[in-house]
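User: Last request for today: this protein with 6-O-phosphono-beta-D-fructofuranose, please.
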Amino acid sequence: MGNSVKSKKIGILTAGGDCPGLNAAIRGVGKTAIVQYGMQVLGFNAGFLGLINADYIELKEAQLSGILTLGGTILGTSREKPYKLVSEDGSDKHKPEKIIENYHKLGLDAVVCIGGNGTMKTAHLLSQEGLNIIGIPKTIDNDVWGTDVTFGFDSAVQIATDAIDRLHTTANSHQRVMIIEIMGHNAGWLALYSGIAGGGDVILIPELPYSLDTVIKKIEKRYEDKKPYSIVVVAEGIEHPKNQSAATYIAKSIEAATGIETRETVLGYIQRGGSPSPMDRILATRYGAFAAECIAEGNFGTMVAIKKNKLTTVPLEEVGGKLRLVKPDLGLILKARKMGVSFGDEE
Ligand code: F6P
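Assistant: Here's the final one, the structure of the complex with 6-O-phosphono-beta-D-fructofuranose:
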């Protein structure tokens, strides 16, 4: 541990939609930075807004204690994208300049940006401006390119699976078809995993185009086979008319075609709330501690990642603007098909 490393001053921010495990990651970065490397740690409020407005607090070790199990983020978050021009008068264009100015004014040596795909894109652009940036991938959607898994996902799978379990008993009692809508605009990881874990009969995800006919036939076949209730798990991003939710559209279509009583549930933000699962606490802690090590080693312009359960880094320029989607030939999908689960795309 050299003196030059000891004197480093770093920033941390959380950006984009929140998820369980953000505080565990902040704690992982901060404690490692302070305890192992003697760095000074600033926490920026509300994502990139904190960097634009120099709105921050100093995080001492004491502030990092007791937050491991807390949901949300102690730093707050926002969907602020400093490179996206939205104002008519052009005042937006000074945001990146402000960030660069504040970075130097505050004497920062690095900033850790915890977020999803959008955050990694911004992180890359800032690193191209010459700032030392490290990304940490989070999201319940599990769709950050370059890593096998993001924290937040495991907790959300637990919450969604618990909801599906509860729907089973009420579906059974009333002999109904139950539709549950799970988050995921582009990626169906959460619907797929919770659908499989919850024993869904039909699982519809954005990556696999479905036909309503196939879904209806599956429900009718179950009915004929004396399985009068069915669970249909749908990702919010599947093809559906935009004036209603995916769940409402599928529920109405099934009931109209089959005459079987059908009900829908949109799980919504419950999926993103509350305390992180033990696996997410561990993953976020590993990512956080590793990000601090990367700073100490000067490994910048990178996102920390997990590949085959090993920590590694990937260049931010490879990550920005891409999504990690479910592949149709994923082993889990092939296995589920063999067990009779319908993805709405095959007879
Ligand atoms: O965090 C990802 C995500 O949960 C998506 O699955 C969801 O569609 C989106 O965020 C909605 O978040 P918000 O309403 O905060 O933009």
